[in-house]
Amino acid sequence: MEEVYRFLKECGTYYLSTMDGNQPRVRPFGTIDLYRGQLTIQTGRKKDVAQQMLTNPNVEICAFNGTRWLRLAAKAVEVPGQEAQEHMLDAYPNLRAMYAPGDGNTMILALTQVSATFSSFTEPSRTVTF
């Protein structure tokens, strides 16, 4: 989990895929945090992406750091409570202009049942699960 966290943090931007009915939707994301032993992401509850994950929690993430890439499949499960929101917003203070703990919109999701594959053109692929 730590290796996946470091890789996504280093990339800065990664691409999150959700399902909207039978149509995949992909968008850039940038939040990644470790909270109480879970890899977490953040979004606004009012956004389509949040509703898509609540309807179908299966997500995929793809990130590239210039030489290696990561493909991650997981279930996104909402983390209740303001403490997780505070933790994420402490890690990304620039988001406080749009979000606040307990505002009814800030949503933290844990990535569970993760299968993450690191790949490159010069090394064999390697998969980690957690």
Give me the secondary-structure topology.
Layout: H1 2-11, E1 14-20, E2 23-29, E3 33-35, E4 38-44, H2 48-55, E5 58-64, E6 68-78, H3 82-91, E7 106-120, E8 126-129
Structural features, described:
The longest helix has 10 residues, at 2-11. The chain has a single domain (2-129), classed as Electron Transport, Fmn-binding Protein, Chain A (Pnp Oxidase, Chain A). It is α+β, with helices and mostly antiparallel strands and 130 residues long. Strands 1, 2, 3, 4, 5, 6, 7 and 8 form an eight-stranded antiparallel β-sheet that branches. The N and C termini lie close together (7 Å). A hairpin with a 2-residue loop joins strand 3 and strand 4 (38-44). The mean pLDDT is 98. Helices cover 22% and strands 47% of the residues. It contains three helices and eight strands, in the order αββββαββαββ. 28% of the residues are buried.
* Secondary-structure element pattern, one letter each: HEEEEHEEHEE
What portion of the residues fall into strands of 2 or more residues? over 45%
How many strands?
8
- Unreliable residue runs: none
Mean pLDDT over all positions: 98
Give helix % range.
Answer: 10-25%
Total discrete domains = 1
Over all CA atoms, what is the radius of gyration? 14 Å
CATH T-level topology: Pnp Oxidase, Chain A
Question: Termini distance?
Answer: 7 Å
Output the CATH class name.
Answer: Mainly Beta
User: How large is the count of helical segments?
Assistant: 3
- Gross morphology: globular
Main sheet attributes: strand count, strand direction, barrel closure: 8 strands, antiparallel
* CATH 2nd-level architecture: Roll
